[in-house]
Amino acid sequence: MSSVEVLSPPRAETGGGGLVRRSDLRLLGSELRLVMTRRRNIAMLVVLALAPTVIGIAIRLSRPSDGDGPPFLTSITENGLFLVLTALVASLPVFLPLAVAVVAGESVAGEASTGTLRYLLVTPVHRARLLAVKLSAICFYALVATLTVAVVGLVVGGLLFGLGDMTLLSGTTVGVGEAMVRALLVSLYVAAMLTTVAAIGLFISTLTEVPLAAMSATAITVVVVQIVGAVPQLSAIHDWLFTNDWLAFAGLLRSPVDTGPVVEGLAVQAAYVAVFSALAWARLASKDITS
Amino acid sequence: MSLTATATAGTGVDTGLRLATKGLTKRFPGGQVAVDDLDLAVPAGAVYGFLGPNGSGKTTTIRMLLGLVAPTAGRSWLLGEPMPKAAASVLPRVGALVEGPAFHPYLSGRDNLRRADAADRTVDPATSSRRVGEALERVGLAAAATKRYRVYSLGMRQRLGLAAALLRPRDLLVLDEPTNGLDPQGTREVRTLVRELAADGTTVFVSTHLLAEVAQICSHVGVMSVGRLVAQGAIDEVTGTAASRVRVHSRAPGDAAAVLHRLGLGGVSVEPGPAWSSSDGVDGHHGHAGQAVADLGTADPSTLLAALVRADVPVEQFVVERPTLEDLFVALTGEGFDVER
After folding, report:
1. CA distance A82 to B262
2. Which residue in B69, B103, B120 is closest to A123 by CB distance?
3. Could you report the predicted ipTM of this complex, rounded to two decimals?
């Protein structure tokens, strides 16, 4: 009987008020502090910062010829801003999702393994509220991780190659100011792509009390989806894969901005986030907490 | 023997009870019945000792009471409100220690309490650091407040768990094995703490298997055995139900036994006792001192004593032996040392 009661949404609690109250922000603040001050999570940001640094130095030393390596690579020597884009493209398939998978896998399973989950729930923290706070904190970490890559790319690129006007994919040239705005939009788009990883990780994290299992399962999911996306024989389902639109930010580098693929990419992630958040909720709401 | 309380009338619940269950049952997916048809009744102001051997269903019961585990059947109330429906409004008034303390190992004791306080949406954030400081002070952890939880000893961890339960005034405390891992001083401090809290009007529900502790601080007890509640009530009431015996030390134990027998007491016997009055007795009498022993039953001890004196039995000591909690516990839950399932 009470699984139904546990499932019922939070009622107007003491003092009433809207869905989110100031006191909820306290828990979110505590969660953000927990995620952002954890040494392992900081260490992952340091590793992510190494990606643009290493790429920048390598290019500076070797000056590759046309056609080699990832997109934008040859343009870097002309404009350090391209290092931002190169670093993001290089980090997106593995490094960024891996970092997010670690934080997401830890989220609920970590609390379950230390036993703090039971104390949060008897405080009480409503199970839906807990998931909302956890998902927000993971997404915040994803944003910080992406911006780390972008900002370090900007600094290293600026130092090694200088910053200048940028020639967009559509051929028009824009000034440094607008180019930086475009780079910021690309970063935000990349961070948005990681919200699906966050939601999948959150769901998997509700399935186990072993954080490491949740982390690796999430990371493996992301890798497998990308492999499926790379197999031409499976092209029928490619449009359904959440990784399919990850590089659609090219539309942001055109003038005028081509919003079509960007909006589609965001919509796909939103759908995935909705589905996996709902699954996480269904799982946690009915779960007996015996950890 | 079962002393199930009659406080839960019909399908409702006595609002005077701070904690109550009716028919509470938990059957785990494997088919194992962890808690079977439990009717708990904890009156306001009680210090309720929840006893039972390991694996008797105490922790599962506590988890159901706090809404962590969904019962298979039955209902429960905290502070007169149905659980888990009223969890949002009731649980802030309930401090809990469930199956040992649990905190983030890489945060300090103080930061862990801050996080616990931040999770409570019903408290005033402005008073947070003061309350955290007071809670640490109260459990004697102020000096270790900035150390990381991972370097805390078991006793310090237990204290931090108690501090979290005391972050704000509570109407009910649910404490699962609160003295686990504490040294004798720590155990004493917890005992004092529980007494103080009870004196302030907090109802305390404490699960333990340390019977000496229960006898010292509890006003009520409930005894679990293999998922069922086998006894419950005020502590005198519960221990009183086990057979009390009357023991008469006398120089003429045979005469005493005869009187007891005449008064209708069962199980009368004579035991040769130590001639305790002879060594330094005023009259220096060296008789065949001994003891007459009988089951008290429903007899009134004062009537017995008067009858013995009227019959000129030289009574030197008259003792009514109430069974100890330990006798009762073993009688109810079995002598065996094995885990029952």
Report:
1. 109
2. B120
3. 0.83
* Whole-angstrom distance, CA of residue A279 vs CA of residue B335: 48
Residue B279's pLDDT is 44
pLDDT in tens, A12-21: 344 444 566 6
A95-114 vs A39-62: helix crossing angle, rounded to 10: 170
Identify the pLDDT of residue A73: 65
> How many angstroms separate the CA of residue A202 from the nearest CA in chain B?
19
Distance CA B97, CA B118 (A): 18
- A8/B68 Cβ within 8 A: no
Closest-CA distance of chain B to residue A99, Å = 20
The secondary structure of chain B in percent helix, strand, coil, rounded to multiples of 5, reads 35, 25, 40
The Cα A199–Cα A263 span in angstroms is: 19
A122 and chain B in contact, CB less than 8 A: yes
Q: Do A123 and B85 touch (CB under 8 A)?
A: no
Instruction: Chain A: give the shortest CA distance to residue B89, in Å.
Output: 6
Length of chain A: 291
Give the separation between CA B56 and CA B34, rounded to whole angstroms. Answer: 7
Q: In angstroms, rounded to a whole number, what is the distance separating the alpha carbons of residues B74 and B43?
A: 19
Chain B residue with CA closest to A289: the answer is B68
Whether B106 and A26 lie within 8 Å, measured CB to CB? no
Quick one: CA dihedral B225, B227, B229, B235, positive or negative? positive
Q: Count the alpha carbons within 13 Å of B121 in the hemisphere toward its beta carbon.
A: 29
Determine the Cα–Cα distance for residues A74 and A63; give it in Å rounded to an integer.
8
Cβ count within 10 A of residue B253: 24
Taking alpha carbons only, the member of B324, B316, B322, B312 closest to residue B292 is: B316
What is the tens place of the pLDDT at every residue in B295-331? 877 788 888 888 888 888 888 888 888 777 777 777 7
Secondary structure of residue B16 in the 3-state scheme: coil
The reply to whether A1 touches chain B by the CB within 8 Å rule is yes
* Contact state of A118 with B68 under an 8 Å Cβ cutoff: yes
Residue among A23, A29, A39 whose CB faces B121 most closely: A23
Question: What is the rounded average pLDDT of the residues A114-141?
Answer: 95
Contact A21/B121, CB-based, under 8 Å?
yes
Cβ contact (<8 Å) for B88 and A10?
Answer: yes
**Mean pLDDT score, B145-169:** 92
The size of the A-B interface in CB pairs under 8 A is 102
- Structure token pair of residue A169: 């994919």
Instruction: Map tokens 């939103």 to a residue.
Output: A270
Q: Which of residues 259-288 of A touch B (CB under 8 A)?
A: 286, 288
**A184-206 burial: b if 16+ Cβ within 10 Å, else e:** bbbbbbbbbbbbbbbbbbbbbbb
> Do A122 and B67 make contact, defined as CB atoms within 8 angstroms?
yes
Q: pTM value?
A: 0.83
Question: Would you state the structure tokens that stand for residue A45, as one six-digit string?
Answer: 């940001």
Cite the beta strand spans of chain A per DSSP E: 166-167, 173-174
CB contact under 8 Å between B115 and A30, yes or no, is yes
